[in-house]
Amino acid sequence: MATMKAVVKTAPGPGAELVDMDIPTPGPDDVLVKVLAASICGTDLHIYEWNEWAQNRIKNMPQTMGHELCGEVVERGANVTHIQIGDIVSAETHIACGHCYLCQTGNAHICVNGRIFGVDVNGVFAEYALVPAANAWLIDKKIPRDYASVMEPLGNAIHTVLAGEINGCSVLVTGCGPIGIMSVAIARICGATKIFATELYDYRLQLAKKVGADFTVNPAKADIVEKVKEHTDGLGVDVVLEMSGAPKAIQQGFDSLRPGGRFSILGIPDKPMVVDWGKDIIFKYATVQGINGRLMFSTWHKTARFLSSGRLDLEPIITHRFRLEEFEKGMELMRSGNCCKVLLYPQSKE
After folding, report:
1. Which member of 136, 156, 157, 341 lies 3.0 to 4.6 Å from 183 by CB, making a disulfide possible if both were Cys?
2. Residue 121 DSSP symbol
3. Full residue range of the structural domain in which residue 40 is found
4. Using one digit for the tens of pLDDT, what is the confidence trace for 198-231?
């Protein structure tokens, strides 16, 4: 049987291995894709580092890592008719059951039986990967393949930014990792008037400025709340987009939010945290939204339209590229914070 290279979490503990494994065979409802580009996510770094979340979440090992990709369909299952051999696809990484209450009421992105590539099932840091045909997203020829590989996290940013009114609004993005920086870019092209951004890594603050932030603050060096109040006549921002998961940043976000404002949270705190419900939410009349993944599949349509239009330039956001064999370099770069999106390129076996 033909084999391929894959980055695999082989056992509990830090690290991962590049191994040879059999190329998988698609089931009747799957497609087999040759991976053209895959991008590293913060979740992948957590699994690689084996932090507390990963220790409690990852149950299946050995397991191929990764979930963000662009690939070419090279084989399809017997039941697949809408996808052709040679099609270029990205993929929705949440595999929904299709029959639970949430799936049946338009909320498949939070399916109670949901599984995720590289977390619950084999992922895409490999030369070939299996994708359920229902999750494969056909790529417009106008969209560069590198851009297609980051459509999944870009969808997170779009879902968060567009979860409420944004046109004409002042916005604070707390945490400028890749999705935070993408959120700055989306907020800018969607008509936000003043965009504030916070981040501990100056490299990423510079990127946030490049893609559209008006004011950038390293919270270890300056007071973001003071900066926001100074430039909003003391009122605060209309919208906070929380991307860091850091309790201090979350509190600064609430302190920066105007009365009646929107607080959309994608960042995940490592541990439970205390919130002053009276001061920060009830008496502030704040709308607080938890954001999980992408809406299936309306967010994907928006994401594809943004990229096809040419209005959204992802070149500043894709900062580093490595061969699959160099995945450890990519992980270490992610750990350093001196990057945005890092892509891996598998070596195809022709």
Report:
1. 157
2. B
3. 3-150+314-345
4. 999 999 999 999 999 999 999 999 999 999 999 9
> Could you confirm whether 3 is annotated as catalytic?
no
pLDDT of residue 350: 44
Reading the block at residue 68, the tokens are: 């963000």
List the catalytic residue out of 10, 25, 43, 82. 43
Question: Of these residues, 25, 46, 64, 81, which one is catalytic?
Answer: 46
Question: What per-residue confidence (pLDDT) applies to 348?
Answer: 53
Active site residue 301: no
- The tens digit of pLDDT for each residue in 97-121 reads 999 999 999 999 999 999 999 999 9
Look at residue 308 and tell me if it is in a domain.
no
- In angstroms, the Cα distances linking 283 to 119, 181, 228, 253 are 40, 31, 20, 16
CATH of the domain at 48: 3.90.180.10
240 C-beta neighbours (distance < 10 Å), count: 30
Q: Rounded to an integer, what distance in angstroms lies between the CA atom of residue 77 and that of residue 28?
A: 4
Task: Please tell me the predicted confidence (pLDDT) of residue 349.
Answer: 42
DSSP 230-278: HTTTTS-EEEEEE-S--HHHHHHHHHHEEEEEEEEE----SS-----II
Collect the ranges in the chain with pLDDT lower than 50: 349-350
Q: How many CA atoms lie within 13 A of 259 on its CB side?
A: 7
Q: For residues 196 and 242, state if they share a domain.
A: yes
In this structure, are 144 and 166 located in the same domain?
no
In angstroms, rounded to a whole number, what is the distance separating the alpha carbons of residues 47 and 57?
9
Chain centroid to Cα 203, Å, comes to: 19
